[in-house]
Amino acid sequence: MLKPVFILLLGVMLATPMAANALNIKDYHKEVMTGADGKVDCAACHGDAKRKTVPDAASCSSCHGSPEEVAKLTERPADAGHSVEPNPHNSLHYGTDLPCTYCHQEHKESKVYCNQCHEFTYPQMKR
C-alpha cells in the first residue's frame, strides 16, 4: 500500500509544470516552448486540453503557417523529373488535409506516414 506522503508527493509532481529537459522535446522547439523559468508551456501546443491529447492543426499553423503555405515551402521544381519524391505536405492521396501529427511527433521519433505503403526517404525531415 502506498503511503499518504508518497501519494501527496506524486500529486504535486504531476500538477507542477515540467522542466524542458524532463520532457522529450525537440531542440528546435525547446526555445519556443520553454519559459524564462525553465518550465515548458504545454498549452502552446495542447491548449487547455489534457497533456496527452494530440494537438490540433491550428496549433501547428499558428507558428508554421497554413497547410497550403507549408506545402508551398516543400514544392519540388517542375523540371526536377519523375525521380523526385512527391511533396510530403501535398499528398496525392490527401492533398494538404493530412494532420501534421501523422508524421511530426514532438515527444517521440517522427515517421513518414506515407511509408506505410511507400518507401520515401525525405532526407531533410526533422526527426
From TrEMBL:
Identify the stretch annotated as signal peptide in this record.
1-22
Keyword Transmembrane helix listed:
no
The places in or outside the cell where this protein is found are: Periplasm
Residue limits of the Tetrahaem cytochrome domain? 39-119
State where it is primarily located: periplasm
* Keyword match Transport: yes
Name the domain of life. Answer: Bacteria
Cofactor needs: heme c
Please list where the region (Disordered) is annotated.
71-90
**InterPro entries associated with the record:** Multihaem_cyt_sf (IPR036280), Tetrahaem_cytochrome (IPR012286)
Q: Which UniProt keywords apply?
A: Electron transport, Heme, Iron, Metal-binding, Periplasm, Signal, Transport
**Protein name (database record):** Cytochrome c3 family protein
